[in-house]
Amino acid sequence: MSDFIFKEFETSSASFWKQKIQFDLKGADYNETLLTKTNEGITIKPFYHSDGFEKLIIPLPTKDFKICQKILISSEAKANTIATNVIKRGANSLKFIAKQPFNIKAVFENLLGKQIDFHLQLDFLSEEFITELSGFLKKETVFYNIDIIGNLAKTGNWYSSLNEDFKILEQLLLKNKSQFIIAVNVDLYQNSGANAVQQVTYALAHVNEYLTKFGGEIAEKIQFNFSIGYNYFFEISKIRAFRYLYNLILKEYNTSCTAQIYAEPSNRNKTLYDYNVNMLRTTTESMSAILGGANTISNLSYDVLFNEANEFGERISRNQLLILKEESYFKNAQHIATDTYYIEAITKQIAEKALELFKEIEKGGGFLQQLKEGTIQRKIKENAEKEQSQFNNGELILLGTNKYPNEADKMKQKLQGNLGTKRNPKKTLIIPIIPKRLSEKLEQIRLTNEA
Fold first, then answer.
1. 15 belongs to a structural domain
2. How far, in Å, CA of 56 to CA of 235, rounded?
3. Residue 10 domain flag
4. Contact 367, 208 (CB under 8 A)
5. pLDDT tens-digit profile of 161-190?
6. Are 229 and 269 in contact (CB under 8 A)?
7. Averaged over 390-418, what is the pLDDT?
8. Pick from 241, 332, 351: which is nearest to 290 by CA?
9. What would the pLDDT profile of 352-375 be if each residue is shown by its tens digit?
10. How many angstroms from the chain centroid is the CA of residue 21?
């Protein structure tokens, strides 16, 4: 039947379609009317055709994505109870967040040997504790997510010092040859306002510092943590472009691998007012992560901005992923974007521009050098300010916030903590990269004006 339907229509070339469009424009300029330039400098055309189709060979995961639940360890017993519960409710991956060393046995009780992936987000660097942890979890799949460069970019300081941090990381790599030790936290750049090309570039330049120091053999011990924004097709293309370029760079180290990517929706476009819209945002962002080929996806709760972590909000966010996976045909969907003309075209443009920018960074001394000079921070700030201006002018729309706001919506009494950007009062070695949401200033004004 499908062959019969296609034979009923005469094929048309790209030039034929363009001529038809130009005729229908009745004298209006094709380029000015129908071509769109993005903040990344990428051109979006009104149509895509097989005549101009160019495909990149992108290494994609062979297994379906895992659903991850994030758990803050404020109490070991409570963290274990939550973990046990969410595994029963559909999660097959856990991310434990800890601000200090914890009782390892108490947290992981009854969780081992169940094919659960464990992710760690430790706000400290302790060789002794991580060695103990890795010994306890030696038979499990664990992502330790140690990113000393990311910590420098985020806080403006090393944990101890450049030499000491790299020495600890080197020892941990030697002791844990088969484990995922290193992370590259690309999410910081997205949440601070970097565009898609910048995110891919900084991910590559960031990881290249580790590859230069420790060699290509560590490529399979690295996890990349991405935040996924609102631009649906660009976010799919962003992950695919990174996968392609990562292997391109690994060729210089005489190795290759399929990058491990952990993804979650961005905080940057989430809003305090009309907060239920956040569920729509995180759903499409999770879809982008799936189609881009993320290995693991963790969702944000719709009330994350004003409420402490709670069972209801986390259940809703987890169920969004379960519905996508089990009821919406997104199971094993990582290959669906392959051969789609538009996504492939955007992927190629992002890859080309990111590779060009990556080369500039390397010529300028590398990622660490440009962080020290403040170049990376300045470039992110420039794009963030451009986006902020677009939001303020109504060009970039967040529904319910700068478009169709519900003036009767009151939020002051619902806030469970401080809202807005957190500043580091400590003296820093470099200018830290600070995440900032687009709607922060507008929300502060509304909160101030609430009766």
1. no
2. 17
3. no
4. yes
5. 999 999 999 999 999 988 899 999 999 999
6. yes
7. 91
8. 332
9. 999 999 999 999 999 999 999 999
10. 37
Phi first, then psi: give them for residue 403, nearest 5 degrees: -145, 125
Crossing angle for the helix pair 232-250 and 196-214, to the nearest 10 degrees: 20
DSSP SS3 for 65: coil
Do residues 80 and 107 make contact, with C-beta atoms less than 8 angstroms apart?
yes
Which spans in 29-146 are helix H?
Answer: 30-34, 76-88, 104-108, 127-136
- On whether the CB atoms of residues 249 and 362 are closer than 8 A, the answer is no
- Quote the CA–CA distance of 66 and 133 in Å, as a whole number: 22
Q: What average pLDDT does range 289-315 have in this prediction?
A: 96
In whole angstroms, give the CA distance from residue 295 to residue 379.
Answer: 29
Range of the domain at 93: 66-344
C-beta atoms surrounding 383 within 10 Å: 18
CB 175 within 8 A of CB 131: yes
Q: Do 168 and 174 meet the contact criterion of CB atoms below 8 Å apart?
A: no
Cα 337 to Cα 223: distance, rounded to the nearest angstrom: 22
pLDDT at 392 over 80: yes
* Three-class DSSP category at 218: helix
Both tokens assigned to 81: 């109870």
Distance CA 305, CA 71 (A): 16
Look at residue 316 and tell me if it is in a domain. Answer: yes
Give the integer Cα–Cα distance in Å for 119 and 186: 16
Q: How many domains does the chain have?
A: 1
Alpha helices in 157-293 (DSSP H): 162-175, 187-191, 196-214, 232-250, 277-292
Asked if 90 and 323 count as a contact pair (C-beta separation under 8 A), the reply is: no
Average pLDDT over residues 319-334: 95
Token pair recorded at residue 416: 């469970």
How many CB atoms are closer than 10 A to CB 85? 14
> And the tokens for 157?
């300081």
List, in order, residues 6 or more apart from 60 with CB less than 8 Å away. 243, 258, 293, 334, 335, 338
What is the rounded CA–CA span in Å between residue 4 and residue 231? 36
CATH of the domain at 249: 3.20.20.240
- Judge contact between 94 and 86, C-beta under 8 A: yes
242: in domain: yes
| Cβ atoms 68, 94 nearer than 8 A | yes
Residues 83 and 118: their CA atoms lie apart, in Å, by: 11
